[in-house]
Amino acid sequence: xxxxxKSQVPQFSVEVYQNEYLPEGGREVNAIVxxxxxxxGTSGGGPLLGASPSPSYIPGQAPGxxxxxxxxxxxxxxxxxxxxxxxxxxxxxAIDTLRDGVAFAVVAGTHVAxxxxxxxxxxxxxxxxxxxxxxxxxRRLSAGGGTAIGTWLRLxxxxxxxxDVPIRHGILLTDGRNEHEAPEDLRTALEANTGRFTCDARGxxxxxxxxxxxxxxxxxxxxxxIVADPTGLAADFTSMMENAMGKEIADVALRLWTPxxxxxxxxxxxxxxxxxxxxxxxxxxxxxxxxxxxxxxDESRDYHVxxxxxxxxxxxxxxxxxVSLIIPAADGGxxxxxxxGLVKAVWTDDMVASTSINPQVAHYTGxxxxxxxxxxxxxxxxxxxxxxxxxxxxxxVQLAADSGNRDTAKLLSKVVDVVDAATGTxxxxxxxxxxxxxxxxxxxxxxxxVKK
Length: 452
Known about the structure:
This protein is of the alpha+beta class. 30% of the residues lie in helices and 30% in strands. The protein has eleven helices and 20 strands. The protein has helices at 82-97, 128-137, 149-161, 183-193, 210-219, 233-245, 351-355, 359-383, 386-403, 406-412, 434-442; strands at 11-18, 21-22, 28-38, 65-72, 103-109, 113-117, 124-125, 167-174, 198-204, 224-227, 249-257, 263-271, 275-276, 282-283, 288-296, 299-308, 317-327, 336-347, 416-420, 425-428. Strands 4, 5, 6, 7, 8, 9 and 10 form a seven-stranded mixed sheet that branches. Helix 9 (386-403) packs antiparallel against helix 10 (406-412).
């Protein structure tokens, strides 16, 4: 494990926002759970003001993190030739951002996966010399061959698992569709690597498949984005690596315990992006289950928990759920509980109390719907259902305006002409740049935080 000074140990807090009052016969309880990690020594990859720097590497000591950069080197990366050059420059920028002592490797991805640096099935340890050697090795990268992303991920896993570190992370760049392996091969690779390492995925240009790239990031609890202009790769890779270097604790899970008779309807992350977690539950003892959240640095995330409780009479109250943030024990023993919060249910005949919608719940319900209707609208547009697309994207414009999600509203305005945002009245644009449509689809799950 990474070594922390006492002042560097991240502290977690859990806050629960809900309207705990239900009318007679009411059964559905909704809560927004805000999880915040602070004091780990980093904030967005850099040191906190007034705090000690990130855990320093001591020569001879095991590194605390490992990163594998997977670079698409298929033939299409040569069209135009500047794409490959920008990919090399971006990888070099990411290598420069590596913290001393971090284990790392570079993989070239085509229809096979090849080690670029250091080779021999091992990882290098970042210092001035290995960074220089790695950047020199990037000169050998050239475009040719097909695309089989599952093989890239399998090699990354083998390399990452060779190092006994708590933080294992991948960065994956592709410019094309996964055409040289069967879809089930990629699914199998993702299933095999789920929980083994996290991975950020990027699509460069406009010839790749959005659902493939976002699916990779979703399965491996990373981020996904488009870099439509290859000249933006270096800045994006630097930002991704800074974020990876800011992670201090891995394999954190949200544990949900519910009393007898309570049914879990769903659990989803709702900020900074919408991510469905319900199907990722692993059982953790009687009436308890764990939902993965990945690695954490100094950051805050919001989760929406919805449960169904048994009917009860006026004046009764119950604990609907206990939410804990935990690190599972490697030996299967008792987990380390980082923080916890309670979700409650109280039955009342006060109609004002029972019909009031908690602002956080209302906000994120709208943000989840926003992500959903954007996807539905774009799918309808692609299939030729222009009436359906207009209705869904109009609703998206309305939701974005209501919630103050200006970034999404701006992206929507490149796909539709907005007649009246308040009512969701829009017209589909006759011609839409492919990059604009792909950007909207890729970033559709990004949310804005609720106004406190």
